[in-house]
Amino acid sequence: MLQIDRKRVEKVFSDYVENYNSRDDKVRLKIEHTFRVAALCERIAKSIDCSAGETDLAWLTGILHDVGRFEQLRNFGTFHDAQSIDHAAYGADILFKEGKIGDYIGDNIGDMGNRRETEIYPYASICPHVKYTDENIRELIENVVRYHSAYRLPDEFDDTTRKFCNILRDADKVDILKVNVDFPLEEIYNVTTDELRNSEVSEAVMESLKEEHATLRSLKRTAVDNVAGHISLVFELVYPESLRMVEEQGYLEKLLSFESRNEKTREQFGEIRRMMEGYFGKINRKISVL
Q1: Among 256, 69, 53, 243, which Cα is nearest to 148's?
Q2: What is the pLDDT of residues 154-202, one digit of tens each?
Q3: Angle at 28 between CA 82 and CA 71, to 5 degrees
Q4: Interval 82-120: pLDDT, tens
Q5: One-letter-per-residue 3-state SS of the chain
Q6: Per the count of CB atoms within 10 A, which of 104, 156, 203, 249 is most buried?
């Protein structure tokens, strides 16, 4: 079974982020986000009866998923991919093109499991028993990191890769809700308070919410579109445990309670709240009959 040395992984990551100013709130934000996402990945994996090896692998992808963020901030001064680089692809390049993945897992998978060929037992009947070589495992990790923030996953991904992608993508979305509550929105979105509190949600963004899917970055035109866009991430959550975590943590409720100075925007957020209540009601009915 796949075995990962978590202490080694945590030390390598901690050593890596020592190269950045942890007193900078934005750096600290991403360090804390990383460890929370890894823990959420573990929780989601366990909720779908993943093996111990799969759960460790899901946790590892959580630790690795945002390694590109730190160089992004250093070089561009922002976390906005549209204004800089694709942080997910850049992180995958750091790990796999620059060879940093070896620092975390050794030169081969045998370092983690004491054998060249590692067995992973995928969840339930989603896919059959699979044997992974070192190359397979590395390719899977790279794809999960590279596509964790993509709007949609490539059609050619197999079920196992898609499962690990969805675990990480769910965990990341759940924690992004927390970040948007605990960290000043003006700093996250690089906007002024006046822009944020006085702007309206664009019509295109409202329409995307009505269609119950995540809002494309290209549709966002106003400062408050970012708040609505992050709320829309809930529509993309795959696993029931992820939705339970959203309700449990309460950060969605706080985002829905966004305080605007604009009367129309307040009406829009009332409408968005009704959309989310209807969506959760529909999903909970589906879960209850499973």
Answers
A1: 69
A2: 999 999 999 999 999 999 999 999 999 998 999 888 899 999 999 999 9
A3: 45
A4: 788 999 999 999 999 999 999 999 865 543 333 333 444
A5: CCCCCHHHHHHHHHHHHCCCCCCCHHHHHHHHHHHHHHHHHHHHHHHCCCCHHHHHHHHHHHHHCCHHHHHHHHHHCCCCHHHCCCHHHHHHHHHHHCCCHHHHHCCCCHHHHCCCCEEECCCCCCCCCEEECHHHHHHHHHHHHHCCCCCCCCCCCCHHHHHHHHHHHHHHHHHHHHHHHHCCHHHHHCCCHHHHHHCCCCHHHHHHHHCCCCCCHHHCCCCCHHHHHHHHHHHHCCCHHHHHHHHHHCHHHHHHCCCCCCHHHHHHHHHHHHHHHHHHHHHHHHHHCC
A6: 104
Type of residue found at 162 = R
